Amino acid sequence: MDNTNIFEKVDTSIKENPNYKKMIASLKCYLSGKSISSFIIDRPLSGAQKDYQYEYKTGFMILVPGLKLLFSTIEEIDTEEFKNFRLDFLDDINSLSDKYKHKEILGRTRSWQALTDKIDISKLTSKADPWQKYSLNNTNKRKAELLITLLTGSVNDPHNIKVEAPRDLLDAIKHRITLFDADQTRFIYNDLSKKVLSIQGLAGTGKTELLLHKLYDIYAHQDTANTRVVFTCFNKILANEMKNRIPAFFDFMKVDEQIQWGKRLWVMRSWGSLANPEEGIYSHICYKYNLPFKRYSNGIKFDELCTEAISMLEKIPNLEPCFDYTLIDEGQDFDDSFFRLCSLVTSKQVIIASDIFQNIFDKRSSQTSNPDFTLNKVYRTDPKTFMFAQLFGFGVEEPVGVNWLEDNTWRTCGYSFDVKGTEYTFTREPLTRFEDIGNCNETPLILRGADDKKSTIEHVVSIIQEIIDQNPRVEPDDIGIVFLSGSKQDYEQINRLAIEINKKYDWLCQKGYETKSRESNRLFISNRNNVKGLEFPFVICVINEKIEQDYIARDSIYMALTRSFITSYLVYSPDNQQLMSQYDNLYNQIIKTGKATVSKPKITISETDISNQTNKTQQQVADSVFKDLHITDSAKKGRLSKVISVLAGKSTDYAAIRSIVEKNKDF
C-alpha cells in the first residue's frame, strides 16, 4: 500500500502533469518531519461521489491541517472557469456544513471563506517554501480543520466540538477534532477488488472507527438498495457496544434510509447460540443453510467448527451467499478458518481489522499477518505508555525474553531505532494527539506496587482521588478499571471496590463482565476479557497474582494499558516487586526521554511452544498451565488432569485448558 502522508483523489491526467508533480515534491518537503497528513481532492469525499459533479475537470483542493484550504489547477489559474469551479466547490462545502449542522460553529460561507485561498502551482520553485504564508492562528486553524473533516468524510459531532482552544487535556479529549490521516483515508476510499481485504493496526490507531466509516460508505452509497452487510467480532461486549454505536453513527451521518436490521444489516458476535441464530455469525450460517449447530464448550475449538461448516457448505450445489459484505473487528482473535467461512457466504468482500499485538504470540492467521493496509500511528495512547506496554509484554528486561520482532517489523509498527551490536535504542514519532494542547502530560504511565500497609482497594481509591483532584471536571465514565489476574480474589475486590466508590463518591459502577455493555455516567470495572475495543481518558490496571512469562497475561497487560487517552496506572501485587524492579531503568528512560534502550534477548520463548500446541500432548500442555498458575500439589494436579480430560476432550489448546483449570482449581 501507499504509505506516504499525502492522500490523493484526483484524475490520472492531473497526477501526470509536470507542475502537479512539482507541487507534490514541494508539499512532501514541507510535511517532512511533521506528524500531519494532507489531502488532495477534486471533489468532496463525504457522501456519494455522484453528488458532486463539476464541469471544470482540471481543478482540485489541497488540504493541509494548519493551513488555509487551497484551490489550484493544472491550467491557468486566473480564468472564469476556475473561478466558477471554486464557487461550486464552496457551495458544496456550505451544503455539507448545513447537512452536518456545523453552521452554528462555522457560520455561513462568508464567515469562513477567508480560510480558503488559491495557489498557482506553475510558479512553485524548489528553493522557496510557498506553504508557510498560508498558516492560520489557533481559532482559525480549528475552523479550517473542521472544514477538512467535512470534505474528507471524517465528520465530527458538532455538539462535542468547540472553536476555542481546549483548557486542559481532559477538555481536549472531550472536544477533540478527529481528522483521519492519509493511511486511514486510503482504507476508506481506495477501492481494492480483493475478495478478502485486511487492515492491521496497533492499539489506538482507530481501526474500529474506520470500520464504522467503511460500513457507512457501503450501506449508504452502494448502487443497489439491497446490499447486505454484517459486522462481527469475537467479544460479546464489543458486539453489544457496536449495536448501540451503529444506529447513533448512522443518524449522525444523516443516512436517509432507516436501518433494516436482519435484512440489510446485522451486528453479531462470531459464535452465537442455538436459541437465537441472529446472535452469532456461525449460528446464523447454521440456521440459514440447515447445518448442525454446536454449542460452546471447553472441549470444542471454534476453528474446528468453522472447518466443519466449510466442508458441509462446499457440498451444497450453487451455494447462494447470505451476505454481500462482512466486516470483522479484532481479527487477531480468529483462525483462517473463520475468514474462509465468512468468505464462502459473502458475495463481494470480507474486510478484516486486526491488532496482531493484542495477541503477541498467536499468529494463527496468515491473513492478519500479511495485511493490505497497515496503521502504525497511535492516536489514543501516549507513545511512552505504548512503548513500555509493548516492551514489557515482550519481556525485554528478563533473562529469557517473551518475544522479539524482526527489524522490518519494528519499523512497520512505527518504531525508529539505532542498533549497536545487539543493543537497540527505540523511539516512536511524537504525535500531536490533541490539537492546541500537544502532549503535555509528563507522566502518562504510573506504576504502583501494592504493599502490606495499603490494600489494593485503598490503592485504587487513592488513584481515583488523584484523578479527581487533578481533573475537577472528571466524570465516572472517564475512568476504566481492569483486573487482569482472572482470579477469585479479583472478583471479591471488584465487589468491594464498587461499594467503596459508591459510598465515597456517590458514583454508580458497572461490571463489564456482567452487563456485557458500556453505560454512560457509570465507572466501568471489568476483568481482562471485556475491555477490547473500549477506551477511557484514565485506565487503572490491577494485577493480584504473580506475572509469569505467560502470553495471556502479557497480552492482557499490553491491551489494558493501551486503553487510555491520558494516563494509565498499573497496580501490581507485592510478589511482582522483583520483576517490576527489573524494568525501573527502562521505565524511567522512556518517561524522561521518550527513548528505550534494550538488548535483543539471547533466548525468547518459542512461538511453537505457545501457539502450536498440536505438537504437545494434553498432559504436557496441562503441566505448562499448572506451572504458570503455581499449582504444585501433586494430588490437586492429578484431579485437575482428570477434569481436563473430561471437559476438554482431545483438545491441546493452551487457552482452553487454562480456562478449565482456572474455573476448577478452587473446588
Characteristic terms for this protein:
667 residues, alpha/beta, six-stranded parallel β-sheet, 20 strands, 39% helix, globular
Write up what this structure looks like:
The structure is a single chain. This protein is an alpha/beta fold and 667 residues long. It contains 26 helices and 20 strands. Strands 8-7-9-10-6-11 form a six-stranded parallel beta sheet. The protein has a six-stranded parallel beta sheet with strand order 14-19-18-15-17-16, with helices on both faces. Strands 1-2-3-4-5 form a five-stranded mixed beta sheet, sandwiched between helices. Strand 18, helix 20 and strand 19 (564-572) form a beta-alpha-beta unit. Mean pLDDT is 87; it is low at 610-614.
Radius of gyration: 26 Å
Across the major sheet, the strand order is: 8-7-9-10-6-11
What percent strand? 15-25%
Share of helix among residues? 25-40%
**Could you give the count of β-strands?**
20
Mean pLDDT reading: 87
Distance between the termini: 53 Å
- Low-pLDDT parts are 610-614
Based on helices, strands and strand pairing, what is the structural class? Answer: alpha/beta
Largest sheet: 6 strands, parallel
